[in-house]
Design goal:
The protein is α/β, with parallel strands linked by helices and 197 residues long. It has seven helices and seven strands, in the order βαβαβαβαβββααα. Strands 4-3-2-1-5-6-7 form a seven-stranded mixed β-sheet. α1 links the parallel β1 and β2.
Length: 197
């Protein structure tokens, strides 16, 4: 996956809680094994409403989303994460994320950043009033800088942080332990030679 070290971009807000994966990526678009073209499905049903933030003609210039609570709830549809990335979104900042969505995001290079609730709500309100303000998300420095100048830490598991910084997928994460695996195999071959025939 593409490493995530530092990203600065324009942000847009979706001022809603409990946005589910069927809204993000409607199920009818998932009848393919190809992993391309998912940006056309990204909020496809909601983009028909001219008042929806992502229906704007300039919405594709935003690379950061600000969201409410429980974003990505519903099914475990990994397509929802792929649609974010293919649309051009690199980070999603919000009150909270559904566990499976968060896990899928981290495994695919989309950074979900949980902010304190009051901060996240203010960010959504500010971006609703004035979209496309710039946000800097610096995973290397473990810091997100919001349009109002405030900086906040990025709460993330160290293993997930390392994987994002290095662009490691699940196989790469395992390969990081190659030396340990080889050492175990050498010890085990000596201790249990019959198992290695």
């Amino acid at each position: 996956m593409t490493p995530f070290v530092r990203h600065e971009g324009a942000a847009i807000a979706l001022p809603l809680d409990n946005v589910d994966t069927d809204a993000i990526f409607p199920a009818r678009f998932g009848a393919t094994i190809a992993r391309a073209g998912f940006e056309t499905a990204f909020f496809a049903d909601w983009r028909g409403d001219p008042g929806f933030a992502l229906a704007r003609a300039d919405a594709r210039t935003a690379t950061i989303l600000a969201v409410g609570a429980n974003y990505g709830c519903g099914s475990s549809r990994e397509h929802a994460v792929w649609a974010h990335l293919q649309w051009g979104i690199r980070a999603v900042l919000g009150v909270s994320f559904a566990d499976i969505f968060r896990a899928n995001a981290l495994k695919n290079g989309l950074l979900p950043v949980t902010l304190p609730e009051a901060t996240a709500r203010k960010l959504v309100a500010d971006l609703t009033a004035a979209p496309f303000a710039r946000i800097a998300v610096d995973l290397a420095a473990d810091l997100v800088r919001l349009p109002d100048g405030t900086a906040h830490p990025i709460p993330i598991d160290p293993a997930d942080r390392a994987a994002l910084l290095n662009g490691w997928d699940a196989i790469d994460r395992t390969r990081a332990f190659d030396a340990d695996i080889a050492a175990f195999a050498a010890r085990d071959r000596q201790a249990r030679p019959w198992a290695w025939r």
